[in-house]
Write a structure and sequence with these properties.
With 336 residues, the protein is an alpha+beta fold. Helices cover 45% and strands 18% of the residues. It has two domains: 46-189, no CATH class; 197-329, no CATH class. The strands form four sheets. A three-stranded antiparallel beta sheet has the order 3-4-5. The chain has a two-stranded antiparallel sheet with strand order 1-2. The chain has a two-stranded antiparallel sheet with strand order 6-7. α1 (2-91) packs across α2 and α1 packs antiparallel against α3.
Length: 336
């Protein structure tokens, strides 16, 4: 009887040990499964965070390209204008097509295929190549293209460049792509650039720089000091007929129809300083209007001597901006 009881007790102990071991095993498996699941969730979450970070980085890079492109167009566009002006002044030969030449300079740095020093290493193609290098450093494949480009005078003192930029970005790390197009525009100031019409019409002896008059629309018949200052400095004013910068690059004194794209006045006019013309060794047409596009190209238009101004100063009565004549907009009294 005692031996049978001992056997049963030993069997109970073994069963309890086996049951306990099974529980330990099950708990261990649950714990391991939990750890694996947690690691999987953490890995998945980390991958999601990584992907989101890369997508955000791609979008930020795209936006920075758009902003930097505007700056590039402004810098390169102004250099292109300067290069075009230098070409006209140094050769004495007007351009055939101003906006075509500016386009060629912006993208290729050339005029009729001839490289221009001012644009060496500074064209829009150079800008694109530099961005490709920056993109590659961040594991992005980049391609930028431009469409629907239009270059024209926006107003008397600015040219406008309209363009469509297409940006293709491919992230090599997450195999994701972005392909977007956007219509953009920039204005480029022409102030402080040289007016090509002066050297073209004076055999390169007289130069003048585009500077808006600080006295514009502030003239008085009783006090001609502002008008006199405009004459002495050959400041510029908006004009209905006087050639825009693109017309002047082509040796044209008046605005051509092909450049009348903007609704704004795009023409320019300055007062020719006849004393400066005379001191350069050139003959002076005293009776011609001092308005530059008339003096250089239409000297036969009737002009009037003005009270309070030098004896060789003349002003015509042709219509200009705001449907006013030159005599009206400069608010002068003529000497009969």
């Amino acid at each position: 009887m005692v031996m049978g009881t001992s056997f049963i007790q030993n069997g109970d102990v073994e069963m309890k040990g086996l049951f306990f071991s099974l529980i330990i095993l099950i708990l261990t498996m649950i714990f391991i499964s939990f750890i694996l699941l947690q690691k999987s969730l953490v890995s998945s979450y980390s991958k999601q965070i990584f992907v989101e970070a890369r997508v955000d980085g791609m979008l930020n890079f795209y936006n920075s390209i758009l902003k930097d492109c505007e700056k590039a167009f402004k810098i390169i566009g102004r250099r292109a204008l300067n290069a075009a002006i230098n070409k006209v002044i140094t050769t004495g030969i007007p351009l055939d097509c101003s906006n075509c030449t500016v386009y060629e300079l912006i993208f290729n740095g050339t005029i009729n295929g001839e490289s221009q020093p001012l644009l060496q290493g500074l064209t829009l193609e150079d800008w694109k190549n530099k961005l490709k290098i920056i993109a590659a450093e961040q594991a992005f494949e980049l391609n930028i293209s431009f469409n629907k480009i239009l270059i024209y005078p926006y107003d008397s003192f600015n040219i406008k460049i309209e363009y469509e930029i297409n940006v293709y970005l491919h992230d090599l790390k997450i195999n994701a792509s972005l392909n977007k197009s956007k219509q953009k525009e920039v204005l480029i100031k022409i102030e402080n650039l040289e007016d090509p019409i002066y050297p073209l019409k004076t055999y390169g002896r007289v130069v003048n720089v585009f500077r808006l008059s600080p006295h514009w629309l502030n003239y008085s018949a009783n006090d001609t000091n502002n008008l006199l200052d405009d004459l002495q400095n050959s400041y510029y004013h908006p004009s209905l007929k006087g050639g825009s910068i693109f017309d002047r690059l082509e040796g044209k004194c008046e605005v051509q129809e092909k450049y009348k794209i903007s609704e704004n006045y795009i023409g320019l006019e300055s007062f020719v300083n006849k004393d400066k013309i005379l001191s350069s060794g050139l003959d002076v047409n005293v009776e011609a209007s001092n308005i530059d596009y008339i003096y250089f190209c239409n000297p036969g238009i009737k002009a009037f001597q003005v009270q309070g101004m030098p004896a060789n100063f003349r002003l015509d009565n042709e219509t200009t901006v705001y449907e006013l004549t030159h005599l009206q907009i400069y608010n002068v009294s003529v000497i009969e």
